[in-house]
Design brief:
binds guanosine-5'-triphosphate, alpha/beta, single chain, globular, binds magnesium ion, 9 strands
């Protein structure tokens, strides 16, 4: 079974469509793990209501505690052997989940990334400043990983990759943390078309950039200490 971990904060306009598109894409067993941070727009309550139609578990947290920590809390609730992480704002195409799954199984990968920067991938409707900020962020982690889209929020992994690994729940870039600290041999990037959100507002604020700087410092120290 696949556990699909979906952090939500004020995404009530997006999750119904997201759940329906996931259901239409997946035939095999799956579960949706919603980690909601007391969204003022009642996303958590809506997810509960949708559990009569969809295989949903909802974790309600007390307040906005961050995306990375939401993903790690979601891992703790997952009962599948394969875990998929995605955003809830429909930026990541749910129709690609079966492609990630097939790639992971057939090519015996440990991690498969829905990649905006692999050949054939793209980003629709982003302002230039977003493109520039992301390119700079990727360049700043190049010595840590050769992956083309290490900041993607859409990926699938075998649970063994992160079991008993000390991941620090900080900021938005949990995939980067996993790529540097996780236990794996093979990573594959599958191109995706990333669409900017239509409904709701971005949760990226200046704190996210500060947390990213602290994360970088920590990951470079980790790499120097561990030499891999
Ligand atoms: N539970 C939880 N989810 C969060 C938090 N911050 C962001 N999210 C969710 O994480 C996903 C990514 O956040 P976004 O605001 O879409 O970030 P982004 O994709 O980098 O930026 P935009 O799409 O341009 O707004 C979305 O599904 C959010 O609802 C948080 O503190 N807690
Ligand atoms: Mg988004």
């Amino acid at each position: 079974m696949i556990s699909i971990i979906i952090p939500t904060y004020n995404e009530s306009k997006n999750i119904t469509g997201l759940f329906e598109r996931i259901r239409a894409s997946l035939i095999d067993g799956y579960e949706l793990i919603i980690v909601d941070d007391a969204s003022p727009d009642a996303t958590g309550m809506l997810a509960e209501k949708l559990s009569c139609e969809h295989p949903v578990k909802v974790l309600h947290r007390s307040g906005k505690l961050g995306l990375a920590s939401a993903v790690l809390e979601g891992f703790k609730l997952a009962s599948g052997d394969l875990w998929c992480v995605m955003d809830s704002d429909l930026s990541h195409p749910p129709e690609m989940i079966p492609v990630l799954l097939k790639t992971l199984k057939e090519q015996e990968a440990d991690i498969v990334i829905g990649s905006r920067f692999a050949k054939g991938g793209s980003i629709e409707n982003w302002p230039l400043k977003r493109h520039i900020a992301t390119k700079i962020a990727i360049l700043s982690v190049r010595p840590l990983t050769p992956v083309k889209d290490p900041m993607s929020g859409f990926f699938m992994l075998k649970k063994e990759v992160v079991e008993n690994v000390n991941l620090i729940p900080r900021g938005f870039k949990i995939l980067l943390e996993i790529l540097v600290k996780g236990r794996y041999e093979k990573v594959i990037e599958v191109p995706i078309v990333f669409k900017d959100r239509i409904h709701g507002e971005s949760k990226v604020d200046p704190k996210v950039y500060l947390e990213f700087s602290a994360q970088l410092w920590d990951l470079y120290c980790h790499k120097l200490k561990n030499g891999h």
